[in-house]
Design a protein that fits this description.
The complex is a heterodimer. Chain A is an all-alpha fold. Helices cover 63% and strands 0% of the residues of chain A. Chain A has two domains: 61 residues; 64 residues, no CATH class. The longest helix of chain A has 23 residues. The model of chain A has no long low-confidence stretch (mean pLDDT 84). The C terminus of chain B is likely disordered. Chain B contains 22 helices and two strands. The chains are: A mainly alpha, B mainly alpha.
Chain lengths: 155, 521
């Protein structure tokens, strides 16, 4: 039992079973139709069942194989800083892009995500962000003409 | 048949040599090569990042540019693996084995030169194959009804997901997730929104660019952040002159190249066995027939020539089902096909007839692109080597910006940037559980057409599911599916001995070499 909780296949199978069951249940809220005239729910319904089945198979294969040496689900070092910064970068892009325009969005996106590296400094990240902002504004606004104002103030 | 093929090819060259198309092909190869050289950017990530740039171009130009990006990126990956011992792309894992020792001996330039020639030879053969095989396949495929198409797609999905790396079961699971993501949005036949959770932004479905960039961009960055040790660039000083292999090296590589080409094209005939398997098999075979097998791994030029030729001939072979049947063999092909669909071109057997300019132009551009690649790499090799030295900590923040703006610019919609972040997070969790997200893309691109054909064939058969077995061609495809599954089970059950003996170091190399880096497929 102790072993089982460390196995990737345990969680992988569980995930697929849950997803499959969820899809199957959800698809019954749409019209299933008949086999001849399939409604929008029929294909996802079948898909959900197959998914659940595959999930069970992954689960079983997890039970049958011994725990691999050094098998671990989480990576050896938890890179919380890196992960959060990487996810926060594009989110900053959305936030600042929505309210202040492309230049602030680009700067914040690069700046925040650059901080994710363990050796990053505020100054280094800011220089990188400034450089990318200039290049990005030139390429996307001037050359490719993406309809995204460089600056705006929309509240 | 030869005459029509040649005249079609002539027409293709006409299309590909139009100044505008030629320019896009050149831009594609250049940018693809440039981005592909960056450590940690495999062809999948490169194509996904550059995909949004092609939306403003006409379909022909866009596909020429994308395929240019693709082989540019592939060659960039080869540079990365030979000079730095870092395979950003699994097929190149084998090239590292002998490529990096050559670099250490100061012959890295020659290895790169041989790589260019081998890939050109391999690709040329693959292209020739495509010229003759694709129209034949199309003629057969045009007779297919929905039932046959459906079974064929099932075969394609199964082969693509089970023969890739990792556990076949998990590959199938990922394909199913892809099919599910393909369902999201408004049902074409009834107009019912499905799995949209009430979000109007999802009514048009999940965006291909967002999905690809989430899976191969953000998820990969999360995996690789802070994992990069200092890149060893001690050996990677390569100038223009070093690219020329010595006469002896050249003489030894030629037969290896030809053998690799054959191995690659054989592999591409089996659906789903992509370039990775081709390169491993050809390397193993080359080692077996060599007079000095013990020297492999210590810098044999044959060990570079052979897998590179195999990779490229099999990649070109993969284009055959993609372009003629509309069924991609792996995630890269799925991405290219998805790009065509965004352009409003419907993939499938009717493509050659309806868009001969795309098909023949693409074929001709393969050659032109490969020549551009050769010409480009001679003067620019010094620049590529400089690019190799960009540290990852500067690379990924810049890439994240390109991801964000790329996704935004496809529809000018911030929601999709958020979608990409969500996909990235989920993709990373899946990576932690040993799922390989590449198969998601395969399911996603084929999903809607699969469902459509499934529903249509059930309608024609009046709800009788046996139709798939009653029609001979469809039954044959289903039979192949069963064979495929049984073979997988058989191999799994006796895996420890048989596989280990046949392909000695496949898993070992893959794990050892790819583990610390991003596994950009």
């Amino acid at each position: 039992m102790q072993n089982l909780l460390q196995k990737k296949d345990f969680y992988a199978g569980l995930l697929m079973v849950l997803l499959g069951a969820g899809v199957t249940l959800n698809s019954t809220t749409y019209n299933l139709g008949t086999l001849m005239h399939m409604g929008p729910g029929m294909f996802p319904f079948m898909l959900g069942i197959v998914m659940t089945f595959i999930g069970i198979l992954i689960f079983i294969s997890g039970l049958m194989t011994p725990l691999e040496d050094g098998e671990r689900i989480l990576p050896e070092s938890m890179e919380w800083r890196g992960w959060i910064c990487i996810l926060a970068g594009p989110l900053m892009f959305i936030l600042f892009g929505e309210y202040f325009g492309m230049v602030p969005a680009t700067f914040m996106c690069v700046f925040v995500s650059a901080l994710g590296d363990r050796t990053a400094t505020l100054k280094g990240s800011a220089i990188l962000a400034a450089g990318i902002t200039i290049v990005g504004a030139f390429v996307f606004s001037y050359v490719l003409k993406v309809p995204f104002p460089l600056f705006r103030w929309s509240f | 048949m030869l005459a029509t093929a040649l005249s079609d090819l002539w027409y293709g060259f006409g299309v590909a040599l139009e100044p505008q198309n030629l320019m896009w092909c050149f831009v594609g190869v250049l940018v693809g090569n440039m981005v592909g050289v960056l450590p940690g950017m495999g062809p999948l990530a490169t194509i996904s990042v550059l995909l949004p740039l092609t939306f403003g171009i006409k379909p022909v130009g866009a596909i020429l540019m994308l395929s240019g990006v693709f082989y540019g990126a592939q060659y960039g990956g080869a540079i990365c693996s030979i000079l730095l011992n870092l395979p950003c792309h699994p097929p190149h894992a084998v090239t590292c084995l002998d490529g990096f020792p050559l670099t250490k001996q100061g012959r890295g330039g020659a290895a790169l030169g041989i790589t260019v020639i081998s890939s050109f030879v391999g690709a040329s053969w693959g292209i020739t194959e495509m010229i003759f095989l694709a129209p034949l396949l199309v003629r057969v495929a045009l007779q297919f009804g929905p039932a046959e198409i459906c079974s064929l797609m099932l075969l394609g999905l199964l082969a693509g997901s089970t023969l890739a790396r990792g556990s076949p079961l998990k590959g199938i699971a990922m394909t199913l997730v892809g099919l599910l993501l393909g369902i999201v949005g408004t049902d074409i036949e009834t107009g019912t929104p499905r799995f949209t959770f009430g979000l109007t932004s999802l009514f048009d479905g999940v965006e291909l660019v967002g999905l690809a960039l989430g899976l191969f961009g953000i998820a990969e960055f999360m995996k690789s952040v802070n994992q990069y040790s200092d890149i060893n660039t001690r050996y990677s000083k390569v100038g223009i002159r070093d690219l020329r292999p010595s006469r002896d090296e050249f003489r030894r590589s030629i037969p290896a190249m030809l053998r690799g080409t054959i191995a690659g094209s054989l592999c591409s005939l089996i659906p789903g066995t992509g370039p990775t398997i081709a390169s491993f098999i050809s390397y193993a075979a080359e080692k077996k027939i060599s007079k000095t097998p013990e020297k492999f791994g210590s810098g044999m030029i044959e060990g570079v020539a052979c897998p590179e030729a195999a990779t490229h001939s099999s990649v070109q072979g993969d284009f055959i089902p993609t372009m003629s049947l509309g069924i991609p063999g792996d995630a890269v092909m799925a991405l290219i096909l998805g790009a065509l669909m965004i352009q409003g071109v419907i993939p499938g057997p009717q493509l050659i007839r309806e868009h001969p300019d795309i098909f023949w132009g693409l074929i001709a551009s393969f050659w032109i692109g490969n020549i551009i690649l050769v010409i480009l790499n001679v003067p620019l090799i010094g620049l590529w080597v400089k690019l190799l030295m960009i540290p990852y900590k500067y690379l990924y923040p810049s890439a994240l910006f390109f991801v964000s703006i790329g996704v935004y610019s496809t529809n000018n919609d911030m929601f999709q940037v958020g979608e990409t972040v969500a996909v990235g997070l989920v993709g990373y969790l899946l990576l932690l559980l040993d799922f390989h997200p590449a198969s998601i893309l395969l399911g996603f691109v084929l999903g809607p057409r699969f469902e459509e054909n499934f529903r249509r064939s059930m309608l024609i058969s009046r709800g009788d599911a046996l139709v798939f077995l009653e029609r001979p061609i469809s039954a044959f495809f289903l039979f192949l599916c069963v064979v495929l599954i049984l073979a997988q089970i058989y191999v799994r059950l006796r895996k420890p001995k048989a596989i280990a003996a046949a392909v000695p170091s496949l898993d070992a190399i893959g794990k050892e070499k790819l583990a610390p880096r991003g596994e950009a497929l």
